[in-house]
Amino acid sequence: PFFSSFHIEMALTYRRKIQKEGNAVPDELEQNVAQALYDLEQGSDLKQDLRYLFIVSAKEVTVSAGKSAIVVVIPFRLLNNFRRIQTRLVHELEKKFAKNVVIIAQRRILQKPGRNNRVKRQKRPMSRTLTSVHNAILDELVFPAEITGKRLRYKIDGAKQLKVYLDKKDQQTMEDKVDSFCAVYKKLTGKDTVFTFESQFR
């Protein structure tokens, strides 16, 4: 029947745009994001750019009551390819899902060398430290906006909060996304942040 063959075809098409670790089965959101990428590849001028691109996962993060954002995780080696079309791609995905969308590269954090793990046998690359990975996530989260400064603040209760200064020129396009940035960064790193477009040197 047409209906079943249509669904089989759809299953095959979305699978071209997602490769999960261990061949795990994508959940419904991941299928929908992958299918959206395939549809854009077939029906837009992004065809050439998207041809060899795929994602590894997608997850929904609660921002506030009635609002959520979609985090799309991509292979690290494809980061520069995605960046070439990211502004347009994110716009198309946000239009489709009616949510803020952020694209993050997949990274692994290596443990500090210690007596009880084998990491001590090799030098840990700086790019794989906790701090480096968290900084990279922050840069990717706000892309294409530029971070002009950061300041670590301590609240009255002793909790830390990272204040992130974004370039004033990006305020018009990014202002409605800062709450999503906070929620996603907290989910991915456990750290509290606040984003501002004011000058760091006021």
Would you kindly provide a written description of the structure presented here, covering whatever features stand out?
By secondary structure, this protein is α/β, with parallel strands linked by helices. Helix content is 41%, strand content 20%. It has helices spanning 2-15, 28-43, 47-50, 79-97, 130-142, 171-174, 178-189, and strands at residues 57-64, 67-74, 100-105, 147-154, 160-166, 193-196. Helix 1 (2-15) packs across helix 2 and helix 5 (130-142) packs antiparallel against helix 7 (178-189). The radius of gyration is 19 Å and the shape is globular.
What's the helix count?
7
Shape: globular
Q: Say how many strands there are.
A: 6
**Main beta sheet:** 3 strands, mixed
- What percentage of amino acids are in beta strands? 15-25%
SSE sequence, one letter per element: HHHEEHEHEEHHE
- Please bin the fraction of helical residues: 40-55%
What class would the helix/strand composition place it in?
alpha/beta
Low-confidence stretches: none
Q: What spatial order of strands do you see in the largest sheet?
A: 1-2-3
Overall pLDDT score: 86
User: Which radius of gyration do the C-alpha atoms yield?
Assistant: 19 Å
Calculate the terminal CA-CA distance, rounded to whole Å.
Answer: 67 Å
